[in-house]
Amino acid sequence: MLAEIGDITRFGSARKLASWAGLTPTVRGSDLTVRHGHISKQGPAWLRWVMNQAAQTAKRSPEFAASYAAIAKRRGTTAPAELTITEATASEDVLLIRATTRIDRYAHGLTRAKGIAGRHLAMEITARATRS
User: Is the pTM of this model over 0.70?
Assistant: First the structure.
């Protein structure tokens, strides 16, 4: 990383380094409309990969987990699937649970799928457990 980045003091902030590496979103705007797109992918691809892997590891680290969770909660990305239990019954040998869920398929990386038009998928789930 150091060989690719060179003198790190030439970047005034971490945001400027991320922009140079191509990790910031593209921004298109006109008058009052601003659109943020995918990351720009300018700069070295392997450096983006290494920085991405470091971020994925850091979010599980005890030092950074709390701040990552706070950002994820603020952005609303903590629950890409919502599960609601609609019925739960238990008898002597059988447990039956019925639930509905709404899944944001974009959050799971399912952006292109044949036959699926909407972004959110609604599912009904029935689980039955029997004692043997």
Answer: no
